UniProtKB/TrEMBL annotation:
Membership in a protein family: Belongs to the LysR transcriptional regulatory family.
Domain HTH lysR-type: start-end pairs: 5-62
Keyword Transcription on entry: yes
Organism annotation: Pseudomonas denitrificans
Full protein name: LysR family transcriptional regulator
PROSITE patterns cross-referenced by the UniProt entry: HTH_LYSR
Annotated InterPro entries: LysR-type_TF_proteobact-type (IPR058163), LysR_HTH_N (IPR000847), LysR_subst-bd (IPR005119), WH-like_DNA-bd_sf (IPR036388), WH_DNA-bd_sf (IPR036390)
Length: 295
């Protein structure tokens, strides 16, 4: 069996690293400053590694120590959850999911009633996942990221979602009022952009209609806003097989032509492998997989 450092030393380290201050850790743990220093020295000797860089009264965790801090915080949370379940077997599991705003608004939220019906014992907390963040924050059980996720496969579980296909979408009213029979017909329409540099539309036009010059552009910088503007007939947007799925199924949007391109980016489910010990995390991954398979 693997020998671990004392739980007291690990708990002391977690508090000191979180506060970046031995004195604040001592106050939180109701011990003396010297007791904190003793526990940290003992832990450094056991691990054979320096955990803090001293800067006067302040201390900063080393890069190795920050990794240990993250793992300990997750481990302590799992231990706490298990203890809560033992104290109250009927208690509901808490599941913290981070997801990009676009995917939450246009795909996930509409399906959460099914999740609640399937797993009534799980209380779901949704958090915003920054688009540029590769993985989940420390307090998050599972993130739906845009990108390939962290490269450290030994630490992180990563499951890519289906490859994104980009294609033009518009309201039925706009389509019927000014028919779009061929990509060149886009020259008469306003193009709605979900970015500020026009890359999505540029990529599609380069492939399917490189010689046209659309009459007008509006840059909304957000897929949810862009889809809503398209629904209201304000122009033609670039949709995809995830964020446009519900609007297409309901008839709020239509695809004027089948031409599409494959995106270089995609969404992925990401969590620290330690989190897979939490049954609610596994349940959510299985549910997401079922939802995607049904599309």
């Amino acid at each position: 069996m693997r020998r671990l450092p004392s739980l007291t030393a690990l708990r002391t380290f977690e508090s000191a690293a979180r506060h970046a201050h031995f004195g604040r850790a001592a106050a939180e743990l109701c011990v003396t400053d010297s007791a904190v220093s003793h526990q940290i020295r003992q832990l450094e000797e056991q691990l054979g590694a320096t955990l803090f860089e001293r800067q006067g009264r302040q201390v900063q965790p080393t890069p190795q120590a920050r990794r240990l801090l993250r793992s300990l915080q997750q481990a302590f949370e799992l231990i706490g959850t298990a203890c809560d379940e033992l104290r109250d077997p009927g208690s509901q599991a808490q599941l913290h999911i981070a997801v990009t705003v676009e995917l939450a608004q246009k795909w996930l939220v509409g399906r959460l009633a099914d999740f609640a019906e399937r797993y009534p014992e799980i209380v779901l907390h949704l958090h915003e996942q920054p688009l540029e963040a590769p993985g989940p924050a420390a307090e998050i059980d599972l993130a739906i990221t845009y990108g390939t996720g962290p490269a450290d496969a030994s630490t992180y579980f990563v499951r890519p979602l289906p490859t994104l296909q980009f294609f033009p979408v518009c309201s039925p009213g706009l389509f019927n009022q000014s028919p779009l029979k061929h990509p060149r017909d886009l020259a008469r329409h306003c193009l709605l952009h979900d970015d500020q540099d026009g890359k999505s539309w540029t990529a599609w036009l380069t492939t399917h209609a490189s010689d046209i010059r659309p009459s007008r552009h509006v840059y909304l910088g957000h897929a949810g806003l862009t889809m809503e503007a398209a629904v209201r007939g304000q122009g033609v947007a670039i949709g995809d097989n995830l964020t446009s799925a519900e609007d297409l199924a309901s008839g709020r949007l239509v695809r004027p032509f089948a031409a599409q391109i494959t995106s270089l980016g995609q969404y992925a489910l990401v969590c620290e492998r330690l989190r897979l010990e939490k049954p609610a995390v596994v349940d959510f991954i299985e549910w997401m997989t079922d939802q995607l398979n049904d599309m």
